[in-house]
Amino acid sequence: DAKTTQPPSMDCAEGRAANLPCNHSTISGNEYVYWYRQIHSQGPQYIIHGLKNNETNEMASLIITEDRKSSTLILPHATLRDTAVYYCIVRGYNTDKLIFGTGTRLQVFP
Amino acid sequence: DTAVSQTPKYLVTQMGNDKSIKCEQNLGHDTMYWYKQDSKKFLKIMFSYNNKELIINETVPNRFSPKSPDKAHLNLHINSLELGDSAVYFCASSQDFGGALLETQYFGPGTRLLVL
Fold it and tell me: Which of A48-52, A93-97, B11-15, B99-103 has the highest mean pLDDT?
């Protein structure tokens, strides 16, 4: 079972920041937080991952709370093409298994 | 120059038939996976292969048999298809298997299987 809880859906205006929350209160010390997204039934696409420090790449930023029980994915300037289902995944240190939950359906509107 | 490709994109077949889905990756990765996404959009891992060796085998009926002729290919053969096999099947690959590397997985476009 997925170890994460996400809101089922969110809306965001184009050009604004999209902040997607994720709860992972049972995360272990050696487990990473991964984010993937799935655009309209395409294959899932990797976005970012982190352990305890905040991370940023060309797609997004990941903010992990100090107790690591929750995190937020930030799309700084959402576009219509960012409309997708976003999955927050807790991944064990020594496993390749990505256990997908139900994700958050982000709708970016003009 | 698609990184992970799958064929066919759509597959419609009758119950009881045997079918195969093919996956190829040109990323030079060592590990490949099959995932199933059902009608409720739940995405679950089925198998993973590392250097042609089976690593992960989730609770999947033995009608499903993955075959890896080489590192770049992982095919999925399904015998005696059932209505419940209707789903989208995604292939994925990563540079290596787990451990400290925690490699990113790259997914293919999916094969939409409909069993009538």
Answer: B11-15
Tens digits of per-residue pLDDT, A78-108?
999 999 999 999 987 667 677 888 899 999 9
Nearest to A97 among B4, B45, B106 (CB): B45
Residues of A within 8 A of B99 (CB-CB) are 93-94
Whole-angstrom distance, CA of residue B104 vs CA of residue B9 = 23
Q: How far is B44 from chain A (nearest CA, A)?
A: 7
Contact in structure between B7 and B109 (CB atoms under 8 Å): no
Strands (E), A29-96: 32-38, 45-50, 55-56, 61-64, 70-75, 84-91
Residue pair B44/B99 in contact (Cβ under 8 Å)? The answer is: no
CA distance B110 to A43: 6
Phi and psi of B5, rounded to 5°? -120, 150
**Among the listed residues B43, B73, B39, the one whose alpha carbon sits nearest the alpha carbon of residue B58:** B43
